Amino acid sequence: MAWTKYQLFLAGLMLVTGSINTLSAKWADNFVAPGCGGIKEHSFQHPFLQAVGMFLGELSCLAAFFLLRCRAARHPDASMDPQQPFNPLLFLPPALCDMTGTSIMYVALNMTSASSFQMLRGAVIIFTGLFSVAFLGRRLALSQWLGILATIVGLVVVGLADLLSKHDDQHKLSEVITGDLLIIMAQIIVSIQMVLEEKFVYRHNVHPLRAVGTEGLFGFVILSLLLVPMYYIPAGSFSGNPRGTLEDTLDAFCQVGRQPLIALALLGNISSIAFFNFAGISVTKELSATTRMVLDSLRTIVIWALSLALGWEAFHPLQILGFFILLMGTALYNGLHRPLLTRLARGRPPSAEEGEHERLLAGARTPINDAS
Asked: Where primarily located (predicted)?
């Protein structure tokens, strides 16, 4: 069936805003500007402040939800299902996981390339599969176990590509290795978030935009408050600011004031995450979760191509091999091979029922706010 113009728009919006989200964060990291009090020029490395901006973008999804609800009240249709009462504190545990995982990933993005960052996020399949078996009683199919195995192989190949690539003063080998390991560690936390959402949140039939916005509210408030103690906590080699602390918000604002393009990059990060979440939710509803997964894979290609074109990283052939192995692992885990096998075996197109398996952890569903 041919896509409508609206569906094409949603797919394009998800691809573009998802790419902007990662690239704008990396763009901000590449800027050099003086800090407060005459401090010499240094890189803009403020991962926790960037994470606060991301949660601000997620928080804006609450406004979108209430606008849709007001519209539905005036023009009733099927786009807004009746909302069941729920305790907003249900979103606190997954929001804490989201806050921790996102902060770690922004720290890692300062240390490694944007393409490796995007590819290594595929490790989430491994941990969601294992946690779904351990805590949700899932039984994974053989193809899903093969998908997990392929993902592990793909991660090893991408890691080797990072080891063998040329490294400059900005990304030393030790930093790249640390960044890659932090990304994989963050995926463990994201997997826990997905398990919590599956076990406690989805059964309440909460609208996805409301879910994203509520988690964004918790993340924004909590992490904003944590910026105060982070200003005084020493972080050693993990710190990217001259004071050597976990986060120096004042230094960040001084750098933004002296280099306005940093503000543009931060604005791109904040606005893109809101539109990306809306587009992703709409693609799942209008098309399928499998389409959303394919578009997310295309996002990796766009980020990789632009990073190479802008000179942010060096090309290594192993990355191509690693990407395709990761893509194969994702396709196997999400059952993307089933429609093709059915068509080959029966000589006819698969039905919608055979072609779509949209479960959260045993299928193609993604966390509520799959952002970075």
From this structure: membrane
